[in-house]
Write a structure and sequence with these properties.
- This protein is of the alpha/beta class and 335 residues long.
- The chain folds into two domains: 171 residues, Peroxisomal Thiolase, Chain A, domain 1 (3-Layer(aba) Sandwich), CATH 3.40.47; 150 residues, Thiolase/Chalcone synthase (Peroxisomal Thiolase, Chain A, domain 1, 3-Layer(aba) Sandwich), CATH 3.40.47.
- The protein is built from ten helices and 13 strands.
- The strands form four sheets. The protein has a five-stranded mixed β-sheet, sandwiched between helices. A four-stranded mixed β-sheet has the order 8-13-12-11, sandwiched between helices.
- It is globular and about 55 Å long.
- The structure holds oxa(dethia)-CoA.
- Oxa(dethia)-CoA binds next to helix 2, helix 7 and strand 12.
């Protein structure tokens, strides 16, 4: 019998200053602001010029710890979601642990692309619910600009850089926190969205560079079809099995890949658009960072409040997808 719930007690985020607008992209590839806005909902994205994924992750984590009023050395565990690690090893979690000064924490990386934060959140929650740890930092951060081919108009318009972090702590109040989750993967989707080069299958060589295999590849049309279905299916299913309807939900927190996918998910949940967190217009797809970026921005703006019901929904490379049902527990932001 589970005796504890994991609750999110603090959120934080970081986005780099430099903005890459649709108009900037018009000068780089054959595209238009109008096409990008109407097909994706994106107006601009942020780009990290100097530094790596761990640097953004550390800033997001610092922000979350500050909001909770605790020191880095109080953190027990860091679960880091990213597909753009600083390097293959050591893990980005280790680099963050050092830079943050979380000297009593251990940590590891989770690789699940755009579902990375959700998978990391559920992983971190297990350590809290068993009673093993009391303060778990879950971070989603990606520097997508380093694996984006800025000569490929199909994909370079989609991605941006950013980071978000949450702190998980235990409570014995079983009515709040992470109430339920549905997590899925289907590896047969790997061909449609991947980065071919650099790993043990295709180690770096002149050939892999010439073939542009160190950049993200996506067959957008194929991914779009399964993403629309996958994200909506698990969002509807999690409501149904908890005897809830769209009317019971205060916020849908969707992965921000395409506004049309988000709209379709909200529609299937019979959810009013005013209850959907959307910031894709400002940041594009920041992969593991989209969900915590939304949570942090909405909390900071005073729109995400204690006891509200949230559904997180994600879809990404793998394929990986899932949903989580949360009763929000962080203290409201001080206005
Ligand atoms: O986060 C992980 C999961 N990823 C996703 O969920 C992404 C899913 N996919 C998508 O969001 C969409 O498929 C895209 C935004 C990537 C593409 O939108 P689409 O409506 O599926 O466009 P399309 O690929 O069917 O292309 C339509 C047309 C094509 O021209 P033709 O063949 O009809 O003449 C493309 O060549 O638009 C063209 N096109 C562009 N035109 C201007 C493709 N990219 C661009 C562009 N600017 N940047």
């Amino acid at each position: 019998m589970q005796k504890r719930r994991a609750i999110i007690t603090a959120v934080g985020h970081y986005v780099p200053d430099k903005i890459l607008s649709n108009f900037d992209l018009e000068k780089m590839v054959d595209t238009t602001d109008e096409w990008i806005r109407t097909r994706t909902g994106i107006r601009e994205r942020h780009i990290l010029e100097n530094g790596a994924t761990s640097d953004m992750a550390v800033e997001a984590a610092k922000n979350a710890l500050k909001n909770r009023g605790i020191r880095p050395d109080e953190v027990d565990l860091i679960v880091m979601a990213t597909i753009t690690p600083d390097m293959f090893f050591p893990s980005t979690a280790c680099l963050v642990q050092d830079k943050l000064g979380a000297k009593n924490a251990w940590g590891f990386d989770v690789s699940a692309a755009c579902s990375g934060f959700l998978f990391a959140l559920m992983t971190g929650a297990q350590f809290v619910e068993t009673g093993a740890y009391k303060k778990v930092l879950v971070i989603g951060a990606d520097k997508m600009s380093v694996i984006t081919d800025y000569s490929d108009r199909n994909n370079c318009i989609l991605f941006g850089d950013g980071a978000g972090a949450v702190l998980l702590e235990p409570t014995d109040d079983m009515s709040v926190g992470i109430l339920d989750s549905i997590l899925r993967c289907d590896g047969s989707g790997g061909g449609a969205l991947h980065m071919k080069g650099g790993g043990s299958l295709n180690p770096p060589s002149h050939e892999t560079v010439d073939k542009r295999w160190h950049y993200l590849y996506q067959d957008g049309k194929s991914v779009f079809k399964v993403a629309v279905m996958g994200m909506a299916d698990v969002s509807v299913e999690i409501l149904k099995r908890n005897n809830l309807t769209g009317a019971d939900v205060d916020w849908l927190v969707p992965h921000q890949a395409n506004l049309r996918i988000i709209d379709a998910t909200a529609e299937r949940m019979e959810l009013d658009k005013s209850k959907v967190m959307i910031n894709i217009d400002k940041y594009g797809n920041t992969t593991a960072a989209t969900v915590p970026l939304c949570l942090s921005e909405w909390w900071q703006a005073g729109k995400l409040k204690k006891d509200q019901i949230l559904v997180i929904a994600t879809f990404g490379a793998g394929y990986t997808w899932g949903s989580a049902l949360i009763k929000w527990s962080a203290e409201d932001a001080k206005g």
